[in-house]
Design a protein that fits this description.
Helix 3 crosses helix 6. The chain is built from seven helices and 18 strands. It is globular. A hairpin with an 8-residue loop joins strand 13 and strand 14. It is an alpha+beta fold. The chain has two domains: about 140 residues, Diaminopimelate Epimerase, Chain A, domain 1 (Roll), CATH 3.10.310; about 150 residues, Roll (Diaminopimelate Epimerase, Chain A, domain 1).
């Protein structure tokens, strides 16, 4: 029997007990199989668990849940960066530290402000090469599949679009956050649309805020989620940023935005981002937020 140390973090949190809970587990080589990580992640019963293995040069940071290995999302990148800073695995850049992650042959660099006793604000940078598909189901059919009045979509200045950076996502604009909160998938109507959309991931968004601190409210939706679920949205932020950059009214230059996630009755997250739009060039973005360390512990493992 051995003890595996872990930290429990609230990521994109404006206060304790908010944001997305992410366990970060420190592993040695004896526990580094994918099967072991999947089992450990299942024990935490969180959306995703980060594993840090300083001795694994090929893949020192990985993300798993109870179903297996997952791609990095914004929340897991920030969680990994926070603990890597505490472990002395980051590079000292003077007033801040940097940390390098690798995913699908792409490097993701994060930047950690130096706090007095703990890491400060964290952000990471990515270059986006999105695939855009403007062909989507008609608004009345989308509204029916989302159990919502079509005017709450059709009156938006934005239009639905499928965007893929890491994963194809159908992005659906709404007029107000309350309509995003009220939406739910109609299984029968969604099944009718699925063949023409080629993705089961939806990101619903609207101008406005439920926290009082952001320009947008967002919600991730898919057929496998419970009706009243409001899961982390960090994984879809690259797609959302690419969507905004694709808008004709988005002028060339640097743009900043913030998005909140959750509901009035559940945990809430606040994500900050900025992106550079340059004609004929890739979209460069930075995504960041606050991380609060809520606790540490040991998981007994044999």
């Amino acid at each position: 029997m051995m003890a595996l140390n872990y930290s429990l973090l609230d990521v994109f949190a404006g206060a304790p007990f908010q944001g997305t809970q992410v366990p970060v587990v420190m592993l040695d080589s004896a526990n580094s199989s994918d099967a072991s990580k999947t089992a450990i992640a299942g024990e935490f019963q969180q959306t995703e668990t980060v594993f840090i293995e300083p001795g694994n040069d090929a893949s020192p940071v990985t993300v798993f849940n109870s179903k297996g290995k997952q791609l990095f999302g914004a929340h897991t990148i920030l969680a990994a960066s926070y603990v890597a800073y505490e472990m002395g695995l980051t590079k000292d850049e003077g007033e801040f530290a940097s940390f390098l992650l690798k995913q699908n042959e792409q490097l993701i660099e994060s930047f950690i402000d130096k706090g007095d006793s703990s890491p400060g604000a964290i952000q990471f940078a990515r270059v986006l090469n999105p695939t855009i598909d403007r062909y989507t189901p008609e608004v009345p059919r989308l509204a029916a599949a989302l159990n919502i009045d079509e005017k709450h979509i059709s009156f938006s200045k934005y239009k639905p679009m499928v965007v893929s950076v890491d994963k194809p996502t159908l992005i659906v604009p709404f007029t107000k956050p309350e309509h995003v909160l009220a939406a739910s998938l109609n299984p029968d109507r969604w099944s009718d649309l699925f063949g023409g959309v080629y993705t089961s991931e939806l990101f619903l968004f609207a101008p406005g805020t439920i926290t009082g601190f952001t320009e947008f409210h967002g919600r991730l939706l898919n057929p496998s989620l419970p009706r009243d679920a409001f899961p982390p949205i960090g994984a879809v932020m690259p797609e959302f940023i690419a969507y905004l950059a694709e808008q004709g009214e988005t002028a060339p230059g640097t743009h900043t935005l913030s998005v909140d996630r959750g509901s009035h009755e559940t945990r809430k997250s606040i994500l900050h981002a900025e992106f550079d739009k340059r004609p004929g060039k890739e979209v460069r973005c930075r995504i960041g937020g606050n991380v609060i360390k809520m606790g540490t512990g040991s998981l007994l493992y044999s």
